[in-house]
Amino acid sequence: MPTIFICYGRADRSFVDRIVPLIHQVHGLNSVWFDGRIRGGDEWWQVILDQIAHCELFVYVISNESMNSPYCQAELREARRLHKPILPLRVRPGLDYPERFPQDLKEALVKIQYLEMAPGVRDTKEVTEFYAALKQGLERKPPSPLIPLAPEPVLCPAPLERTHNRNTQYLKWGIGALLAALTIGAIIIGLSVFMDDNALIGTPVLNAVDDSNIQLSPKPLAETPTNLIDATTTPMPTFTVMPVSDTATFTHTPSITPSPEPLATAIPTLIPAHSSNSAWITVTRQYRDVLFVEVPAGCFMMGTDEGEHDEHPAHELCLDDFWIMKTEVTRAMYAACAAAGGCTAIATPNIAGNDNQPINHVNWDQANDFCDWLDARLPSESEWEYAARGPEGWLYPWGNEFIPDNAVYINNSGDQIAQVGSMPGGASWVGALDMSGNVWEWTSSFAKPYPYNRRDGREGTSNLILINRVTRGGSYANESEFLRAANRSSYSPDTAIGLIGFRCAHK
Questions:
Q1: Is residue 245 part of a domain?
Q2: CB-side exposure of 358: number of CA atoms within 13 Å?
Q3: In terms of C-beta density within 10 A (0-12 exposed, 13-18 middle, 19 or more buried), how is residue 220 classed?
Q4: Which residues 6+ apart lie within 8 Å of 473 measured at CB?
């Protein structure tokens, strides 16, 4: 049974998704519970009550939404009823208790020191403080059960009452907006009448502009990538698919002067955005004893206008062709690098695995070192998304509908990493496997807002410890919404947790 219960408002789900892996790293995969673990058919409120009753620490994420939520209020009241140690995390600066927040809960919280988490979990200092607070909270567990403050559990809040209150508030906002619009309209009409009257009596208009000599500057064009290929090349060539080997054996021995590899004889076509992904036929090759798939040159719509805020806006981006590993780097591959002295050894506590599972507990530098040892590199964020979505811009690597059997995620993983390539139905349009689920994957890019600009330094390789690096793809511990191909996450480059692995790319 999980020992840590997390209570949060829906607006703070992305924050919860970032701290859960940190808890897993220290306290194990089954150490934390939040309502994302509820399954279809569960009596959800009873499940919540059971989890609160058995937890050893109740983590309360303080935000406007959680304090206004009757469900979060009820969960907090149940934790108090059972004398559970409470750790408040403040994730919004300058918060004050709203009117809807019950007085008894306010009086209880003001007695407990909260942990300031508004900046997020970004560096070693903040992570250390978070771990210390968790440790202290778990140590506050009473030696024997205490008598509950009330004999019966807290009842589930009535959703109808909440809906009525919300609709009433919407009606008030609507009436207020209508009155404001009418007032502004009356003012505008009055001003226009006044100005028309002045014009009729010959009052000159001041600061008039003669537009006959105005020179309009052309609108700047969208930034054009430096490595575009002429879109007027010959039709897309047909390639022969090479057989795939599933063995975990890896014997790569890098040389100082890498021997040249055979290249495809045909020149890939620049595929326009919105083209069908099915027009491309998978091309594979062995490169340094590792199987890679080709990603043809082309354009796609990066990001989305409908997802999380950091995915906005959707914008067109064009890329040269490149190659990306068919699977994530495995334990066997990384062990070969470590044995050759090209990588530092990785410890994977509390996680049993085999050689054909993806390597995890690896930080960004270690991932980068492995790819360098392989005479390759980490893919940029734009390359990763293009390899996952294609010119057609699919929501998931395999299409626009989520298919549970195509990804290793929280509902089917059993809280365990799977072998690479275990979900062949989840192959992307270029044949890359596990781009949704199993483990998050490091990219080379710094975490910066969209639109994506490759010239703004985000694809730099310098080790700036204070700037997060982007991870993509979701993991075995995430729900399907985090497995969308446009979903973004990021971590400090010194982060090494069980949910993060990587794959390499090369030109």
A1: no
A2: 35
A3: exposed
A4: 384, 388, 434, 435, 436, 437, 438, 439, 440, 441, 483
Written as tens digits, the pLDDT of the chain (507 aa) is 568 999 999 888 888 888 887 887 777 767 899 988 787 788 999 999 999 999 999 999 999 889 999 999 999 999 999 999 999 999 887 778 888 899 999 999 999 999 988 776 655 567 778 888 998 888 887 767 788 888 888 999 876 444 444 444 444 445 555 555 565 555 554 544 434 443 333 333 223 333 333 232 333 323 333 333 333 333 333 333 333 344 445 555 544 334 344 433 344 457 888 889 988 999 999 999 999 999 999 999 999 998 888 899 999 999 999 999 999 999 999 999 999 999 998 866 545 568 999 999 999 999 999 999 999 999 999 999 999 999 999 999 999 999 999 999 999 998 889 999 999 999 999 999 999 999 999 999 998 899 999 888 888 766 655 678 999 999 999 999 899 999 999 988 888 988 999 999 999
φ, ψ for residue 271, nearest 5 deg: -85, 125
Which CATH number does the domain housing residue 436 bear? Answer: 3.90.1580.10
Which range marks the domain in which residue 406 is found? 277-506
State both tokens at 499. 């949910």
Query: Final residue of a domain: which of 143, 169, 203?
Result: 143
Residue 344 and residue 487 share a domain:
yes
Joined tokens for residue 110:
């003001």
Spatial CB neighbours of 96, under 8 Å, sequence gap ≥ 6:
none
| pTM (two decimals) | 0.56
The DSSP code sequence of 15-64 is HHHHHHHHHHHHH-TTSEE-GGG--TT--HHHHHHHHHHH-SEEEEEESH
- Determine the Cα angle at 399 with ends 394 and 401, to 5°: 110
Beta bridge partners of 60: 7, 88
Residue 424 lies inside a defined structural domain of this protein: yes
Q: 505-506 and 469-472 as β-strands: parallel, antiparallel, unpaired? A: unpaired
Does residue 218 fall inside a structural domain? no
CA distances (Å), origin 436, targets 23, 110, 259? 22, 42, 33
471, 325: one domain:
yes
Q: What's the number of domains the chain is made of?
A: 2
Residue 344, burial from CB neighbour count under 10 angstroms (0-12, 13-18, 19+): middle
**Joined tokens for residue 432:** 């890359």
Q: Tell me how far CA of residue 161 lies from CA of 60, 69, 70, 98, in angstroms.
A: 24, 12, 10, 18
CATH number at residue 91: 3.40.50.10140
> Domain end: 128, 143, 158, which one?
143
Helix (H, G, I), strand (E, B) or coil at 362: coil
Residue 227 belongs to some domain of the structure: no
